[in-house]
Amino acid sequence: MMEDVQGKDNERNPREGSHSSYGGYIGLGLALGLAIGSGTENLGLWLPLGLLFGWMLGRWKKRKRTGNPDDSGVQDG
Q1: pTM over cut 0.70
Q2: What are the residues whose beta carbons fall under 8 Å from the beta carbon of 9, sequence distance 6 or more?
Q3: In the chain, where are the structural domains located?
Q4: d(Cα 5, Cα 11) in Å, to the nearest integer?
Q5: How many other CB atoms are there within 10 angstroms of residue 10's CB atom?
Q6: Which of 69, 46, 55 is nearest to 18 (CA)?
Q7: What is the pLDDT along the chain (77 residues), one digit of tens a residue?
Q8: Do 54 and 2 touch, CB atoms closer than 8 A?
């Protein structure tokens, strides 16, 4: 009985930590947005764009890693 519980805990769940996996990419996007916005003196435009680009990069990497073209979280079955 103990082996069954340990086996389930050790299995990798692709949905686990789905939001935290974007964190590094969002931070990178915000840093780049801050740098570009400071350089162009248009911080109000580049901070949201950096946030968007970071989120898009994280989503693209997650889709590439899981191999799921429809990464909506809905599972069949």
Answers
A1: no
A2: none
A3: 23-62
A4: 10
A5: 7
A6: 55
A7: 455 555 554 455 555 555 556 788 999 999 999 999 999 999 999 999 999 999 999 988 888 877 776 655 555 54
A8: no
